[in-house]
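Quick one, tokens below:
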């Protein structure tokens, strides 16, 4: 009974993560970016060396959240994410099932 219970809990957690991850990653990435930029603007002497890596990490988390949304729904949720993933280096990472242009957001 214990192993079946653990498997059921693991499956429920994976299903919850699948539903919530894209939104959660985009929000967390946004707040990390906002916090890093605010620290760089307010205290640049102490923030510049350390906060640049946090800024890059926040941008990466934000991108992963948008990629997961596009993979899950087949469309991009924002034009900014579409433009970022349309850059030459990131264009190869676009999920195959994702529409490049969606007429419903216009």
């Amino acid at each position: 009974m214990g192993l079946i219970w653990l498997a059921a809990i693991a499956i429920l957690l994976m299903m919850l993560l699948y539903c919530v991850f894209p939104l959660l990653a985009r929000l967390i990435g946004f707040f990390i970016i906002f916090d890093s930029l605010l620290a760089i603007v307010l205290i640049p002497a102490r923030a510049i060396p350390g906060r640049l890596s946090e800024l890059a990490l926040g941008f990466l988390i934000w991108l992963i959240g948008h990629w997961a949304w596009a993979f899950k729904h087949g469309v991009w949720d924002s034009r900014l994410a579409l433009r970022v993933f349309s850059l030459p280096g990131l264009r190869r990472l676009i999920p195959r099932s994702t529409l490049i242009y969606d007429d419903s957001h216009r």
